[in-house]
Amino acid sequence: xxxxxxxxxxxxxxxxxxxxxCAASGFTLDYFAIGWFRQAxxxxxxxxxxxxxxxxxxxxADSVKGRFTISRDNAKNTVYLQMNSLKPEDTAVYYCAAxxxxxxxxxxxxxxxxxxxxxxxxxxxx
Length: 126
What we know:
The chain has strands at about 5, 10, 20-25, 30-40, 45-50, 60, 70-75, 80-85, 90-100, 115, 120-125. The N and C termini lie far apart (about 40 Å). The mean pLDDT is about 95. The strands form 2 sheets. Strands 2, 4, 5, 6, 9, 10 and 11 form a 7-stranded mixed β-sheet that branches. It has a 4-stranded antiparallel β-sheet with strand order 1-3-8-7, with no helix packed on it. Helix content is about 0%, strand content about 50%. With about 130 residues, the protein is mainly β.
């Protein structure tokens, strides 16, 4: 019933761009912070970005600052991750996750994901 579905991954050359989408069904994203995580083979999952539902505040890992942009379209119940200037090190499976965010709270700094998507593969290679 409750589901997050990622899409938009694929193969891209270094320096290229991709836009990932995270579409929610079974619930509305209006009151959820949405984070993007990624996991490369042999590595731990790492947080990439997060967007608040309360005030639209955004957060980025140092490794992607200036290159990635997170946004949300509540009317479409979808969150996006625009990825520019991609590097081979960005290769990973990317997951979106949702954390309930109460009014006045900022869930992103202490993101606790309750819902996860299945992931979409991003491969950056020449």
